[in-house]
């Protein structure tokens, strides 16, 4: 498959690692002041369907976003890869898989 941002070639697993190495800034982390939760968001480079998930429902842990930055980004990129397989398989050279993502949900 190809990296959606720079077209670098690799396996799905290599691309997953490369997304964190090369494009960590694509994942935004922020605090939802209204709900008091910590969230992450990642835009799809091919369509308007961005994804947003709660990273930690207990938003009071100040260092959470810094401490788990890598874990959060890897979860976000995994969700993005599943979205590619479901919606943009041809654009990134992935075989389409209709299955539901197995990693739904937040972080432990
Ligand atoms: Zn890339
Ligand atoms: Zn998309």
Short description:
By secondary structure, this protein is of the alpha+beta class. It is built from four helices and three strands. Strands 1-2-3 form a three-stranded antiparallel sheet.
Descriptive overview:
The protein has helices at residues 12-22, 64-67, 69-87, 89-92; strands spanning 27-32, 37-42, 51-56. It is α+β, with helices and mostly antiparallel strands and 108 residues long. It has one domain (12-92). It has a 3-stranded antiparallel beta sheet. The radius of gyration is 14 Å and the shape is elongated. One zinc ion (ZN) binds at residues 44, 46-47, 49, 83, 87-88.
Bound molecules: zinc ion
Oligomer: single chain
Major sheet details: 3 strands, antiparallel
The topology string of helices and strands comes to HEEEHHH
Number of strands: 3
Q: Indicate the mean pLDDT.
A: 89
What is the topology, as strand order, of the major beta sheet? 1-2-3
Sheet-strand content, in percent, reads 15-25%
| Span of the ends, CA to CA | 29 Å
CA radius of gyration is: 14 Å
In one word, what is the shape? elongated
Category by helix and strand content: alpha+beta
List the total number of helices.
4
**What count of domains describes the coordinates?**
1
Measured as a percent range, the helix fraction is: 25-40%
| Unreliable spans | none
List keywords for this structure.
108 residues; alpha+beta; 3-stranded antiparallel sheet; 4 helices; 35% helix; 17% strand; binds zinc ion
């Amino acid at each position: 498959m190809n990296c959606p941002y720079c077209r670098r070639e690799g396996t799905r697993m290599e691309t997953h690692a490369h997304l964190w190495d090369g494009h960590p800034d694509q994942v935004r982390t922020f605090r939802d002041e209204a709900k008091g939760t910590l969230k992450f968001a990642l835009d799809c480079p091919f369509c308007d369907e961005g994804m947003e998930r709660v990273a930690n429902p207990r938003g009071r842990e100040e260092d959470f976003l810094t401490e788990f930055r890598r874990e959060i980004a890897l979860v976000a990129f995994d969700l993005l890869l599943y979205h590619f397989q479901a919606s943009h398989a041809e654009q990134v050279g992935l075989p389409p898989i209709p299955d539901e993502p197995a990693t739904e949900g937040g972080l432990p």
